[in-house]
Amino acid sequence: MPALPAGVELFRLRDGDEIELVTASGVRRLDEDGGLLRFIDDGQRAHYLIGDADSGPERPSHATVKFGIVAPHSAFRPHVHGAEHVVLSLGYGSCTLVERGRVVELALPPGHCVRIPAMVPHAFGNRAGRPLVIVAANTGLGLADANYAVDANEATARGWDHVAAELRLLNGVGPAGLSGRERLAAGLRRVARLLEPVGPR
Q: What is the pTM of this model?
């Protein structure tokens, strides 16, 4: 297989949280070489494709796109963002949202993408027993991307009492597990990956 052109990066998402980065220099595992950063909470990780964790406030229009890796059977602490964002689930995820006191849980099987407007309380979760890879894109927020998630305590400190109250509705609400059909589908996906050709090395 010919080497990639200079500057081209190919990402291969293997089982669970294995992310291989292929370049003209060779192949490396991002999840093994410290290429992943903390993502909102301890135990959740990210790799920036566009932008970085210090994407503001000197660059207020700067957007970010990143891989996120969500630990098995876990969820981010409930939060809101000051701008819209889009999340693509590459595994068995969930997104629990609140609208005027109503809690709604969306199942996000592989290939499902959700767009969330600014200031909508939510929490992403991983419904499976394997790490979940997501792709998250955020519009420019005017603050450091590492600090962009506002939880209930921060909302209270800012005087956003209504937002804080809705965020607290999500406290202790964890992601549901997989159905029997989903567990079967996940197994078939793993078999399919063994049969699919592997890109350049």
A: 0.84
